[in-house]
């Protein structure tokens, strides 16, 4: 019996001894505040955190913003692209209308297609009116300026071709020569009493051929139709207000000659050629003057520096000789 008690006591002593040996380990988890040295000894090292880079985490708005598309030019900006100085351009068109237009108008008035009733004048073989030059000046300004504007809005191979040809003054002169011949043809047919329906056929065919030779663009035929319809309408409205002239053999309401529509139609290509010629040549002249002005300004700015350098060299010459 005593032997059994001794074994039991030995086992209890051994168990207590083992628990005391393990005290530092379990006390870390169960009795932390009572043994801080052991806690510090069993601490795990903190994980290293990567350094933040603000430039990489938050890219600048300039880097993230999508490039904005280029603003397309407006309709007006497209129409006015490459325009010359407007005062000179419109003034030249007006002078051409007052002079050349009046001379061409005399082809019809000589055959009494229209008879002037207000301020009529006779200059040699030219029968006209004092009201004709300003009216034709306005006509040349309005219809002429529309051609380069419409060209800018309607780019095409035909537009490029006719603009290139209109840079030749000979081409423009030929267009006006053909215009004068067509006006003479219409006046001759009228004077010989050819029926109006036949005059329509002849002048209509000639007008389309004339457009094909001296224009050939869609905007050109559109402007010719606009002129053929709009100019007679404006003329009739004007004559209702101020009776400047009348047509002795009018067939439209007793006030207008119907086939004059074709005269306005084949007038348009020649006037368009003149406007295109003035548009391009005046613009080139302005660019050349601007470049010449910049060159002269640069030369004037460099002149004082060159003069100063020459003076310094002249002043150094005696001292070098003395040494």
From TrEMBL:
Locations of Low complexity compositional bias?
58-74
Q: Give the region (Disordered) as residue ranges.
A: 48-74, 304-323
Coiled coil region boundaries: none
Membrane-crossing residue ranges in chain numbering: 169-190, 196-214, 221-247, 259-279
Q: Which UniProt keywords apply?
A: Membrane, Transmembrane, Transmembrane helix
What is the protein named?
Uncharacterized protein
Q: Cite the source lineage.
A: Eukaryota, Viridiplantae, Chlorophyta, core chlorophytes, Chlorophyceae
């Amino acid at each position: 019996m005593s032997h059994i008690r001794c074994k039991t006591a030995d086992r209890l002593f051994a168990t207590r001894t083992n628990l005391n040996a393990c005290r530092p380990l379990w006390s870390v988890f169960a009795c932390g505040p009572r043994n801080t040295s052991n806690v510090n000894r069993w601490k795990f090292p903190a994980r290293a955190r990567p350094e933040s880079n603000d430039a990489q985490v938050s890219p600048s708005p300039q880097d993230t913003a999508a490039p904005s598309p280029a603003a397309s030019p407006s309709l007006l900006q497209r129409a006015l692209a490459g325009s010359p100085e407007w005062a000179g351009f419109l003034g030249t068109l007006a002078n051409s209308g007052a002079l050349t237009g009046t001379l061409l108008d005399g082809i019809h008035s000589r055959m009494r297609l229209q008879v002037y009733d207000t301020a009529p004048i006779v200059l040699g073989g030219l029968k006209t009116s004092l009201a004709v030059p300003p009216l034709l000046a306005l006509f040349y300004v309005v219809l002429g300026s529309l051609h380069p504007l419409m060209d800018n809005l309607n780019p095409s191979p035909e537009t490029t071709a006719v603009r290139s040809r209109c840079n030749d003054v000979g081409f423009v002169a030929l267009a006006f020569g053909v215009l004068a011949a067509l006006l003479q043809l219409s006046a001759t047919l009228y004077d010989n009493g050819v029926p109006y329906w036949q005059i329509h056929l002849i002048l209509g065919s000639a007008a389309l051929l004339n457009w094909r030779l001296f224009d050939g663009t869609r905007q050109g035929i559109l402007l010719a139709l606009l002129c053929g319809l709009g100019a007679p309408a404006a003329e009739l409205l004007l004559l209702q207000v101020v009776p400047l002239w009348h047509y002795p053999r009018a067939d439209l309401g007793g006030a207008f000659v119907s086939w004059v529509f074709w005269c306005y139609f084949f007038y348009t290509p020649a006037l368009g050629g003149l406007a295109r010629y003035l548009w391009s040549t005046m613009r080139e002249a302005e660019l050349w003057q601007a470049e010449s002005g910049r060159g002269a300004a640069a030369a004037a700015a460099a002149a004082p520096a060159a003069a100063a350098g020459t003076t310094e060299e002249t002043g150094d010459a005696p001292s070098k000789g003395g040494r």
